[in-house]
Fold:
Amino acid sequence: MIRVVLPAHLKTLAKIGSEVELEIAGPVTQRSVLDALEQRYPVLRGTLRDQVTQRRRDFLRFFACEQDLSHESPDALLPEAVASGTEPLLIIGAVAGG
Amino acid sequence: MSRVRVLVGTRKGAFVLTGDGKRDRWEVDGPHFGGWEIYHIKGSPADPNRIYASQSSGWFGQVIPRSEDGGKTWEPVGNEFVYDGEPGTHQWYDGTPHPWEFKRVWHLEPSPDDPDTAYAGVEDAALFRTTDGGKTWQELAGLRGHGSGPKWQPGAGGMCLHTILLDPSDANRMFIAISAAGAFRTDDGGDTWQPINRGLRSEFIPEPTAEVGHCVHRIAMHRSRPKVLFMQKHWDVMRSDDGGDSWHEVSGNLPTDFGFPIDVHAHEPDTVYVVPIKSDSEHYPPEGKLRVYRSRTGGNEWEPLTKGLPQQDCYVNVLRDAMATDTLEPCGVYFGTTGGQVYASANSGDSWTPIVRDLPPVLSVEVQSLA
Structure:
């Protein structure tokens, strides 16, 4: 079970309470987690990554286990603690502007 | 008893202001989408309870919410705006080629007769259409493909397609405007387009009368006379009597001819409203006086409308999509400011009262006249 924490505005948009729990078949990567997240909540398509390029939106970051994973390859394995559900993957809106 | 519903988009959410037929009692509902920028929100003329909104954010991109109950509740529909084919390039600020990249929807224009059809003007400039109520959007690529696209350049606010006018007498004719490319017209439902900028003169471009490159801020028409167009350009208020084939200046006695919105009275095709702004580097009214100017002669002769508007120490702006008119009798006129006020006039502009004073900066104002 993978745990994901979204920024407040995206929780509101997707009508999510606190954390999201996802089952991922296969390698647990940023891409596989976001694919599963968007499949469960189609309204999130385009809000986390560009619809065409699939690149992370500039003002979002991916944190887990006290590390910034934002610049890792989307196909790199996430930390074991995330894959096992011990730690959540935190999707953070940058502290920037108004 | 008639009612009006004023749809207000702001930097931090949308507000729905509902007024009675006299337009002196108002209910304020909102914010909807708190924290998101609402560039535009507009109802379908064919089904006034169907409303589309452009909800966007620098963090989370673009969402298109749709309401079926007059703005009480909303559900997101489709937000995939993908340019047709290879997007190509336009000019960047430094003159170098820059790939077309979708940023946000500036303006939504629902069809007059089909609630499921609407047009979206986007940044980087392009026109999209939905025919399934916003679930999917397809680009009308003939606009960018008309030939001058590689020469288009963004204005300071981005390269946005901000104005969409549907000709009520000819379903195949549309007018659009782009900052800073200019105005364009299609006569075949959007397949092919031609620039309609003859007569515009812009001293800030190398060739002041060039076919494209003009910073058009807004165009308006009266539905009974769709060949007559009024334009607020970056500088200059212009008029066309031939569907945009040619333009002439009608700034006349305005204190300054810089500004953003322009609109036409619902029942008097020659009554036009603008809000003069001091200059392109001083986005506030001259002399600290917020004045709407009205021409009853289709331009050239303008009178200041000041009753109820602040006449000292006022330094707000009124953005291009932030003025609208209702169809009641007498005609109501509405506008919103970057200071968060939404002013209403129930007498064609003779006097004004604020409906609300302290919203976030207002990006757009639309009004629906309801039975």
Notes: The interface with chain B takes residues 7, 9-10, 13, 43, 45-48, 50-52, 57, 59-60, 93-94, 96-98 of chain A (CB under 8 Å). The CA atoms of residues 47 and 87 of chain A lie 23 Å apart. The beta strands of chain A are 2-5, 19-22, 60-64, 67-68, 89-93. Chain A is about 20% helix and 20% strand.
